[in-house]
Amino acid sequence: MKLSKRIEAVRQRFLDKETDAVLVNSPHNKFYLGGLFSSSGYLLITKANQYMLVDGRYYEEVQQNNKLFQVELLGGPNTLAERLNSVVAAEGLKQIGFEGRELSYDAYRSLQERIRCRFYSLDLAKIRSIKETAEIETIQTACTMADAAFRHILGYIEAGMSEKTVENELVRFLKEQGGQKDAFDSIVASGVRGALPHGKATDKIIQKGELVTLDFGVIYQHYCSDITRTLAVGRCPEELVRVYAAVKAAGEAAMERAKPGLTLGELDSFARNLIRENGYGDYFGHNLGHGLGIQVHEYPAVAPGNAQRLEEGMVITIEPGIYLPQVGGVRIEEDVLITRGGCRPLTRSSRDLIVI
Question: Which InterPro entries match (predicted)?
Answer without folding.
Answer: Creatin/AminoP/Spt16_N, Creatinase/aminopeptidase-like, Creatinase_N, Pept_M24, Pept_M24_MAP, Peptidase_M24B
